[in-house]
Amino acid sequence: MRVAVFSTKAYDRRFLEQANQAFGHELVYFEPPLMAETATLAAGFRGVCAFVNDRLDHQVLRQLQAGGTELIALRCAGFNNVDLVEAEQLGITVVRVPAYSPHAVAEHAVALLLSLNRMTFRAYNRVREGNFSLDGLLGFDLCGKTVGVVGTGKIGLIFADIMHGFGCTVLASDPVPSPDAKAFMRYVPLEVLLAEADIISLHCPLTPQTHHLIDASAIARMKEGVVLINTGRGRVVDTKAVIDALKSGKIGRLGLDVYEEEEQLFFQDLSQRVIGDDLFMRLTTFPNVLITGHQAFFTHEAMSQIAETTLANIRAFEQGDALLHQICADRLV
Ligand code: NAI
Known about the structure:
By secondary structure, this protein is α/β, with parallel strands linked by helices. 34% of the residues lie in helices and 15% in strands. It contains eleven helices and twelve strands. Helix 1 crosses helix 11 and helix 4 crosses helix 6.
């Protein structure tokens, strides 16, 4: 199929080209993200391949349909950026990559936690400057601490497993407890998790129910000095409330791979520009905040899997086969 591939970087092309040797689709790469201003680039393409921060709202979907697009193949798991109701009404099929190395994301959440706990990102700079002082680098043993896992899907379960390996007690919160949950995990209501956990890691999707799940009132229930890690979606956390909690010391350490307004920032080199997002810039001023730019998925294994599944989804649609990874509007309710 002829497919317009948006938000492509050199690494996307490399993995897609490699996987496409087995599929033979005609892939046309566009570097800009998909949005109202760029949707006309897709005119005449039956397939559109989009990424996590491409904006597939009703306006863009109508433009795509007018240009002849019938399939949107997301090369990511989350689909909060797609107006699925509109897509369905327009007769556009949406497929995604539901699983691609959940280990990649879980391990990155652990990386954020370990770096923040032992301040290795600060130690790295200090040692390079010949500063061997330990002030400000004091960590704590993870062994014996209580970890709260919010969302026990594929990623949350692996994160829970790893933390259990460190000797942590694992609490979990999920409206749909997993049948694969291990005996060491204890499901509790979110309020209990917030009150008892020393470390809280977010692994739920962004839905109307999880938007600002972590707001001022949720933070008020947490332990003093709690460590908060978010590799889920930026809007699960109310950034303003988190900044207040960092200033008061309520949140002791914060690790983010996702950010509420990341669409304006992430996946681009903005080092020569003035960044106008004051909330984001305020976050970067805290010594106890570690932010990565939505890179948790970015491993060799995950990129290969994403490329293969995306191209297989496109082929299944083209051949009229059953679509294993289709997402429909009723997923949102
Ligand atoms: P999954 O679909 O396997 O699991 C999500 C879990 O969250 C489900 O068990 C669901 O019941 C639960 N959940 C839904 N609402 C909840 C709520 N209100 N409170 C607690 N739990 C709730 O998804 P998976 O693969 O584990 O991914 C989780 C999320 O991680 C994705 O939705 C995506 O937003 C994010 N993600 C981030 C990546 C990154 O690079 N930073 C890469 C891939 C996914």
